[in-house]
Specification:
The protein is α+β, with helices and mostly antiparallel strands and 328 residues long. It is 20% helix and 42% strand. The chain has 2 domains: 146 residues, Immunoglobulins (Immunoglobulin-like, Sandwich), CATH 2.60.40.10; 102 residues, Immunoglobulin-like, CATH 2.60.40.
Length: 328
């Protein structure tokens, strides 16, 4: 009896130990993830303005530290060019030709660095001084807010500057506040719809309109994308974003690929889809019938068709086969 109890006790302790071994790493991962997921915020994220040559403009943004973290944050701000490549990937290390002149016109009216505790925020005030001889067109820059987030206790304060231990305690993150400035003067607005399409057959995913638009002017502009979905034999809309069309800002000299979706597309059905794109006076529209058929249903249809074909082939062969004549 005692042996049985001893075995049972050991079995319980073994199971408890295994549970602790499984849960402990998960708790540690959750703690590390919380620190690695530390994200401060910048508000607003962008500014679109129209300026005249000789103007002096003052703008501001807020840097906000969430209050759910125990560690403080050291921040700094700097001005960088705002450039996008042919694939529309953002790059803050490359100048945008003559559209980056604004970088030289921006200065700060508040300190360019500081330190914030959890739950605190600060306002960064900047100024743009446009030269009298500034050319008309678009000018683009970014104010980069870099945050050094320290991990560890206040007792690690002396280890934070310049040594290997300090480097291990620091996590760096950047957020860009982008400035889209239109300088009045010789402005050219010219849009070109490079491509527009609606995929006509879908096995999965959502109904979508796909397009590429080129900005051939010298200033940014807003593209507008409208998607309408109707049943096959009805004019009653199943989905439309006409009242709130999606928009994208396209920079001069760039082609932007965009996909506008109906997020709640049913698993199957046949629809009529109308997709319209507008940009700087250029408009394009495509209307297409779209079939949404999940792959499992497609297999069933193919199997059914194959079964019907095999049935008629076998039946036809049976008819053509000569009958055996019996002998008496």
């Amino acid at each position: 009896m005692k042996i049985a109890r001893s075995i049972k006790t050991r079995w319980i302790l073994l199971n408890i130990s295994m549970i602790i071994m499984i849960i402990a790493p998960l708790l540690l991962m959750a703690r590390v993830s919380a620190k690695e997921g530390f994200i401060f915020s910048v508000s607003p994220m962008k500014e679109k303005i129209v300026l005249n040559p000789g103007d002096e403009y003052s703008g501001s943004l807020e840097v906000i530290v969430p209050d759910k973290y125990d560690n403080d944050m050291k921040y700094s701000v700097e001005v960088a060019p705002f450039f996008v490549d042919e694939n529309y990937n953002q790059d803050f290390n490359k100048e945008y030709g003559t559209n980056s002149e604004i970088v030289k016109w921006i200065s700060f009216d508040t300190p360019k660095s500081g330190r914030l505790s959890p739950g605190q925020k600060t306002t960064i005030i900047y100024a743009i001084n446009v030269p009298e001889d500034a050319a008309g067109g678009g000018q683009y820059a970014a104010i980069l807010v870099t945050a050094d987030i320290w991990h560890g206790d206040e007792s690690d304060e002396g280890k934070r500057e310049g040594d290997e231990i300090g480097a291990a305690l620091k996590e760096e993150k950047k957020i860009a506040y982008t400035i889209y400035a239109e300088i009045t003067g010789d402005i050219t607005r010219q849009g070109k719809i490079v491509d527009i399409n609606v995929p006509g057959f879908l096995l999965s995913g959502n109904i979508a309109g796909i397009s590429s638009i080129e900005n051939a002017g010298n200033v940014h502009g807003e593209a507008k994308y409208t998607l309408q979905v109707f049943p096959l034999f009805s004019s009653e809309e199943l989905y439309t974003n006409e009242e709130d069309p999606s928009t994208r800002t396209i920079l001069p000299g760039r082609i932007l690929y965009n996909q506008t979706e109906w997020a709640n597309t049913p698993a199957m059905g046949i629809f009529n889809v109308v997709y319209t794109v507008e940009f700087e006076g250029a408009t394009a529209q495509v209307s297409k019938m779209v079939i949404k058929c999940p792959i499992w249903l497609l297999f069933i249809v193919i199997f059914a068709i194959a079964a019907i074909i095999i049935y008629f082939v076998v039946k036809a062969k049976a008819r053509k086969s000569p009958r055996k004549v019996g002998t008496e």
